[in-house]
Amino acid sequence: MSIAILGAGAIGQLLAQQLANGGCQPEFIVRPDKSLPPQQLFTLETTTGSYSRPFSCLSTEAAAAEFSHLSLVIVTLKAYQVVAALSALLPKLSSHCQLLLLHNGLGPHRQIIPLLAGRGLSLGSTSQGALRLGERQIRHTGSGITQFGHIAGPTMPDELKLLLLRAIPHSEWCDDIMLALWGKLAVNAAINPLTAIDNIPNGALADAHYQQHIQAVIAELVEVAQCEGLTLENEALLQRVNQVIKLTANNYSSMQQDVLYHRPTEIDAINGYLLQLAQQHDIELPVNQALVTQVKRL
What we know:
Strand order of the largest sheet: 5-2-1-6-7-8-11-12
Shape: globular
Pfam families: ApbA (PF02558), ApbA_C (PF08546)
CATH superfamily of the largest domain: NAD(P)-binding Rossmann-like Domain
Protein name: 2-dehydropantoate 2-reductase
Distance between the termini: 44 Å
Domain Ketopantoate reductase N-terminal: 3-152
Family: Belongs to the ketopantoate reductase family.
Largest sheet: 8 strands, mixed
Structural class: alpha/beta
Pathway: Cofactor biosynthesis; (R)-pantothenate biosynthesis; (R)-pantoate from 3-methyl-2-oxobutanoate: step 2/2
Oligomer: single chain
CATH topology of the largest domain: Rossmann fold
CATH class of the largest domain: Alpha Beta
């Protein structure tokens, strides 16, 4: 089974190394300006040592014939990059190629589904940690669960599922992936904007002042989820958020890093996604609206 990873960032490189360890040799699909010579070395640092491995890179502008062998494309781009990148790539993929979106937040899948043309789409998330040290060098900074599941089109073949499950540590297939992703959405919606706005590490959110704000964010999220036909437990979500705050106390969220380095954020796919749904259901989310406004101002 041939796998390509669209997006050679930290998580994309980590997954490539793990797939290679599992016996698969994935390729990277990169922008033309990021194209690299064939068999370029990528380096992974772990607690047990440093390992370098060659991976091939395909340009997004390559001819369709260059992509015809692919069975699966794993998309590890930022949420706001997904639709444009896949809109250009999808016509070049074979009709049997599967897609797996792995990014923070939700929303891009709704725009991708009408473009599938018979291809299968799965969604997922990972709480693994990876730090990019250079263009082709990362450090594995933390283990975590990786979840994925079917959302539209033909379901992923069993051999592809098994390949992913065997290669990616602590991974699992979820029959109800949306429920799992809403749990991750709650964590991101509570932690990311607050840490970005106040330029603080995750652990600072344990303070009572932030806890009140987090409770309000989660309460609004649960209300929107109910309108979407999902039953989420408020207390269970709060416990999960605070567990992540404790376990990642010294870490800085991706949104904090994006704001710090003046990069676009994924706010539209996190708290902004809640606002999109709220508008459809004619409800207001004043706390989440305020967070989106403040992050966009930054």
